[in-house]
Amino acid sequence: MGSYLLKRILIAIPTLIAISMVIYLVLALAPGDPLGELANSPSITPEIRENIRRVLGLDQPIHIRYVKWATAFITGNMGYSFVNPVQVSQLILQRLPTTLWVVGSAYLVSVLIAFPLGILSALKRHSWLDNLITTFAFAGFSIPPFFTGLIFIIFFSVWLGWLPSIYDSTLVITDLGGFVTQAKQSILPIAVLALFQTAVLMRYIRAAVIEQLNMDYVRTAYAKGLSGWQVMTRHILRNALVPVVTLIALDVPAVFTGALVTEQVFRVPGIGSLLIDSIVRSDTPVVMAITFIYAILIVLFNLLADILYGVLDPRIRYS
Amino acid sequence: MGLVTATFVTACNSQPTADSSDSSAPTTVSSANAKELKLLYWQAPTTLNPHLSPGTKDREAASLILEPLAAYNEAEELEPILAAEIPTLENGGISADNTTVTWKLKEGVKWSDGEPFTAEDVVFTYQFITNGEVGATSGEFYGEVQSVEAVDDLTVKITFNRATPTPMNPFVGGSGMILPEHLFKDFLGAQARSAPGNTAPVGTNAFQVKEFKPGDTIIYEPNPNFRGEPPAFSTVELKGGGDAVSAARAVLQTGEADYAWNIQAEPAVIKGLEANARGEMAYVPKPMMERIYINFSDPNKEVNGETSQKDTPHPFLSEKLVREAISLAIDRETIAEQLYGEAGSVATNFLVSPEKYASPNTRYEFDLTKAAQRLDEAGWKDTNGNGVRDKNGVEMEILFTSSVNPVRQKSQEIIKQNLESIGMSVELKSVEAGVYFGDSTNPDSVNRFNSDLQLFAFDSETPEPDSYMELYACDQISQKENQWSKENSSRYCNPEYDALLEQLNTETDLAKRTALFVAMNDLLIEDVALIPLVRRSDAYALASSLTNLEFTPWAASTWKLNEWGKT
Fold this sequence. Notes:
The complex is a heterodimer of chains A (319) and B (567).
Chain A: H1 2-29, H2 36-40, H3 46-56, H4 62-74, H5 88-123, H6 128-142, H7 145-159, H8 176-213, H9 216-223, H10 228-257, H11 260-265, H12 271-280, H13 284-312
Helix pairs in contact in A: 1-13, 5-6, 5-8, 5-10, 5-13, 6-8, 7-8, 8-10, 9-10, 10-13, 12-13
Chain B: E1 7-8, E2 36-41, H1 56-62, E3 70-72, E4 78-80, E5 100-104, H2 119-130, E6 145-152, E7 155-160, H3 181-184, E8 207-213, E9 217-222, E10 235-240, H4 244-252, E11 259-260, H5 267-274, E12 279-294, H6 320-329, H7 332-340, E13 344-346, H8 368-377, E14 390-391, E15 394-395, E16 397-403, H9 406-420, E17 425-431, H10 433-436, E18 453-459, H11 495-506, H12 510-526, E19 530-543, E20 546-547, E21 565-566
């Protein structure tokens, strides 16, 4: 196990270096200029523009810029944003709690809903209940979040006036009232995200469970007199869980990058909206930091999923 | 440094002034707490130092805190803000030879941290703006300034290089906001962008920053050292992000916010939202105008490694009859009414604002038959029967570009139909704004202008639009030799226009200046150097409960926020 871990980690390093190089190159070659907005201003003479380029370090060739960025990143320094007069790490830390709260709880909610519904529709497959759940899943899966977002806003904010459509990130929770406000403003974005993710997860769980149901060991388990509940929890779920765990483990890093569209619709100031803004404004240090942290998390959670297999399925042993 | 005064606006809009005060519907959800004001900006401010950002959004956010010496109100008159009075020739503030201006500052003004505001702060602001290492974005009005000195604590003397017709440009309006010297003096150079004052500035206006989350929210609280009446609000929250339509909805329909800035949306959408009677739109006509740029050089011929070279005349757009035909064929009224509604009106002038300089001599004409006649007259006929006019083997094929923006794409469609109906072939292209208005050496940038026609808006920031007039000066032609950094992308050059421009540069008499502005405008319009389309207004969504609002085209919409009230 130990040597397996070491091997995986050693493989991860060149992978991450390659990923960072590709992202850096793509960003450097992409059209659009961090000075775009500035270049527009007639008061910026070519000399001033050169000065700004030098201050931002853009006058150096790309490989030098990459090495500088990489060495700084290793020491935890992600540099200054081109657009906002603050450090990139500060920007990300400011946005992270909101994203983790909204996108994280949405994912939790969808896992909590998807498991029972997925198992239920697998057990009662092709019944009216399964059809109902499947219809719901396909609806949730195929309606884009910006559309459900708008529908929810019109219904719950405009017509009923129950829930706010704008997320207030400055809210400080000191009492119960603050918590209620926080819960109210989180309901809509969480619901929109959960609707989509539940649908995906549920179909996946349903397929995984159905695959196990016809197995000989299930029949044997029933034959030796185990109750339906015991067969499900001890035998079917344990086997069905392996592919589901992979899916969830690979989804967790996506919680970090936030929800690109939903954050925009509800004005949730999370990592997703930061990423979009930074791409639009060619704020390379911020885009680079977010995408690279995402890459690190993906590699990390891949490893985690592989280790979890061993825990869930004793037949899988790494050596 | 004769730089052209103007700002591209990639996605803003504008039109006629609103009765900005309150109207009906006294009780809304948000007015329950009358002490709080909520502002929505679909572009989030990123810095609070207006001199380090060219973006209007940042000036809007900064003007709650920082102030200029004076600003132009809606009537185009200067109102003193930090100045005790407006310098004039009569009170001796402006020297008789128009080379110096002496500003008297208000007494007893304090920064929000308690430090006194003095003439030294004004001098420092000048140093900050003009220091090349700082890379300030508001330097265009300070090029003619020779020196700024503090005569005493409350007197600032500005000396110009020569007699100037526009002595009131420095330290006025959005580009003239005064910075506190004690906060920025250690950051006068390349490190200016990392000054802590950029995110938590100390100012003289009625508010100070309580919390600033770049790209998201700013929370303001009253400045305890403000010289005037304390503002009506104990908290002002400025929330950024999202999109314009949902911002308007939050004000007009759900009442979650009191004010939404710069709403560009289709007239039908706005009407639907206004039907809720929670609030209404206010329109402030801006000096900004959507226009079609005409390429006078040939974008398809390469000379010395560059296309659109100024000495290669365009095969058909260099003919005046053809330009007249295009101008006659474009249905500006449909564009203004269908796409802009109350936020736009048909433009006929190059210089649309201020009123005093706008030419009364131009008019709008839409006549497809006349347009076709002009083309026939010029010898452009469809000789090969392919549906497109041609002459000497050249087909009238037009490449028409603009920035990615739904309203611009719809305008392009209308214009394409118009031009094709008189026998031209039009191909449309839209370029992402960051590239289009970005690095001028990019082949798709507005300054390279590698197409035949292009569409975008441009404006003059002050009511003394001298530098705006340089847009069509011969020495402003954008070429490879200047890395396409100049603004005359049409490569229009007319010695007659240049002669008038030269007179304007030294003319200080108002009546003569007016005559010159009108003459220059009429010359460009008569020669069809450009085709004005729509004059735009800024559109603001206002909750009905807001009172005592005042806007001006010449400063941020928040310039008098300290006087706003809420019922």
